[in-house]
Amino acid sequence: SGEDGTLLRTLQGHTDNVRFLAIGVDGTLFSGSHDNTVRVWCGRTGAARYILPVDRMIWALAVGPNGKLYTGLGRSGAIAIW
Questions:
Q1: Which among 7, 12, 14, 18 is least buried, having the fewest CB atoms inside 10 angstroms?
Q2: pLDDT of 42-82, one tens digit each?
Q3: How many other C-beta atoms are found inside a 10 Å radius of the C-beta of residue 72?
Q4: In what order do the strands lie in the sheet with 78-81?
């Protein structure tokens, strides 16, 4: 169950440092990395669902209550919304 500190699973796929993690209201996991991707994972199984490539390093990541993903992109001040 993980409540006793037991590791439940390790999600692998990024090729550089993972800097951000967010959890959607339905348990979906979102990870942002210096490899310029956001990965979307099934929170229940750990299976990869999507890879969202971006053209800049991700500096922030959040999921809104509506399930939309928001990322801050590099020093440009841009925000990407999926």
A1: 7
A2: 999 999 999 999 888 888 889 998 888 888 877 777 888 88
A3: 19
A4: 58-63, 69-73, 78-81
CB neighbourhood size of 60 (10 A): 13
Measuring CA to CA, which residue among 68, 73, 77, 38 is closest to residue 58? 73
Q: Which amino acid is at 8?
A: L
How many CB atoms within 10 Å of residue 58?
Answer: 23
Q: How far apart are CA 53 and CA 38, in angstroms?
A: 6
Average pLDDT, the chain: 89
User: How much is the pLDDT for 1?
Assistant: 61
